[in-house]
């Protein structure tokens, strides 16, 4: 898929992206354009917007001082990959390679809000089924996922 291709391109080029120069911007823009094409073909943001985005929007609602949307999505992607049984460590390491936040402390958000956001994120767009399911995560499951992944 185009979205997966975009993600792999960013992972492959993380060291270039970290430099923050013209070439790094070119790599990121290329990934964003491919992701945009995938959304256009699908007629929906679904190919590039899953539970990590719902998590970010939940943080926007409850955290006194939310972080940047993309940074919150990155941290959310770590947790959602864990829930999917995917290689969440690779996402975390890639984010570290580009100097992006990987935990609540680096986001400047209290860990309590991370856990709460995970428990309410499924309500943000209830018509969009994600790994969070229709009932969401219990507080215990949210805390466990956030701790195992090092987000809190």
- CATH level-two architecture of the largest domain: Up-down Bundle
Query: What is the CATH topology descriptor of the largest domain?
Result: Dehydroquinate synthase-like, alpha domain
- For the termini, the CA-CA separation is 32 Å
Mean pLDDT: 94
Strand coverage percent: under 5%
Radius of gyration: 15 Å
Percent range for helical residues? 55-70%
Number of domains: 2
Overall shape: it is globular
Task: Summarize the SSE layout with pairings.
Elements (H helix, E strand, L loop, with lengths): L1 H11 L1 H5 L3 H21 L8 H12 L6 H16 L3 H10 L6 H4 L3 H10 L18 H10 L4
Question: Explain this structure to me?
Answer:
The protein is mainly α. It contains nine helices and no strands. The longest helix has 21 residues, at 22-42. The model has no long low-confidence stretch (mean pLDDT 94).
Name the descriptors:
152 residues; mainly alpha; Dehydroquinate synthase-like, alpha domain; globular
Question: What does this entry show, briefly?
Answer:
By secondary structure, the chain is mostly helical. It has helices spanning 2-12, 14-18, 22-42, 51-62, 69-84, 88-97, 104-107, 111-120, 139-148.
């Amino acid at each position: 898929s185009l979205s997966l291709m975009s993600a792999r391109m960013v992972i492959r080029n993380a060291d270039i992206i970290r430099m923050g120069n013209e070439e790094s911007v070119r790599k990121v823009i290329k990934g964003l354009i491919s992701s945009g094409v995938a959304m256009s073909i699908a007629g929906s943001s679904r190919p590039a917007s899953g539970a990590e985005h719902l998590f970010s929007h939940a943080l926007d609602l409850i955290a006194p001082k939310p972080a940047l949307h993309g940074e919150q999505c990155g941290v959310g992607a770590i947790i959602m990959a864990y829930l999917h049984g995917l290689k969440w460590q690779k996402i975390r390491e890639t984010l570290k390679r580009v100097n992006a936040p990987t935990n609540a402390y680096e986001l400047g958000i209290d860990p309590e809000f991370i856990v709460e956001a995970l428990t309410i994120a499924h309500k943000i767009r209830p018509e969009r089924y994600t790994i969070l399911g229709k009932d969401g995560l219990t507080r215990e499951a949210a805390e466990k996922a956030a701790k195992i992944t090092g987000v809190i």
